[in-house]
Every structure is written in structure tokens, then in C-alpha cells.
Amino acid sequence: SGTVPCLLSACAAGASAQIALTHGPVSSAVVLVTRHNAGAEDFADWPAKIPADATVVVYMPGYDYRITAQQLRRAGVAGATPCAIVSQATSANEQVHVTTVDDLHASPRLPSPTLLVVGAVVRLAKPAALLQQFAWQSDFVANGSVSSVPQEGAE
Predict the structure, then answer these.
(1) Closest by CA position to 93, among listed 152, 131, 150, 20
(2) Spatial CA neighbour of 56 closest among 77, 40, 74, 79
(3) What pLDDT score does 110 carry?
(4) pTM of the entire structure?
(5) Which of 29, 49, 62, 142 could form a disulfide with 54 if both were Cys (CB 3.0 to 4.6 A apart)?
């Protein structure tokens, strides 16, 4: 069954990027959706309304982040909601790009496979652990933005 590997990949990507998918009063639910092979406006399998306290994990989000952001906003996700694109999770080549739903359209094209994690839990990622795990640039702390940077030793 494809359900178990998908669920496990969401958990693994979150754990590897130091993003808890649920966290007390911030997120009490996880919504798993896919964007793969969806047409420009085809989101038939997505919920019409995503609860404010939910974390959304988008499998295979593709690269047309503008459309994905529009659908997230249509489903009630605020534009200021943080999100993270996790590329090649748990591998030596893992990359993470943190942004917001409003700025998702300007995100880099990270190598596949990717997952998009959307929700307040992204804001709660453990930056000290991330700074140690990834060779992030010092401007992360200054401007709150993470550019795509591979893990240490992944050259």
C-alpha cells in the first residue's frame, strides 16, 4: 500500500528538518495531500477548508508554487503562514527552504523528491539544531529566511 510509505515520508521529512508535524495548541491535526500530476486548477482531492490548527503536508508539490499557494489560500490558509520545502529528506543531499505561503512562488526549484510542509509548526523548528545540522548562512538569524543549503558533507 502507498499509504504507509507516504505517511512515513512525511514524518521522516519533518523529523529530519527538525519540524514537528503536530505541536500542542499550535497544530493538532495533519492534512496529507498531493499535487503530483494535478492540472493547473485540479485540486479535487484537497479539502475545501483546512483547519487553522492543522499542518499541511503536500507530497510532490511540483514547481508551480504559485498555483499551490493559491489553493492553500482558497482552503483558508493565511498568506503569512510559514512553510518549508524539504528536498531529498533524510539523505546527505537534503535541502530545506523556508518561506511563507505568500512568498512560495519565489522559492527555488529544489531537487526531487520534495515535500511541502505548511503551518505554524514550521516557525517552531529548532533553529539551533538546524544551524548545527545544516551549513546555513549567518543571515538566517538576521532575516529569518533559509535559502536552499545542503547538509554538511554533502558535496
Answers:
(1) 150
(2) 77
(3) 94
(4) 0.74
(5) 29
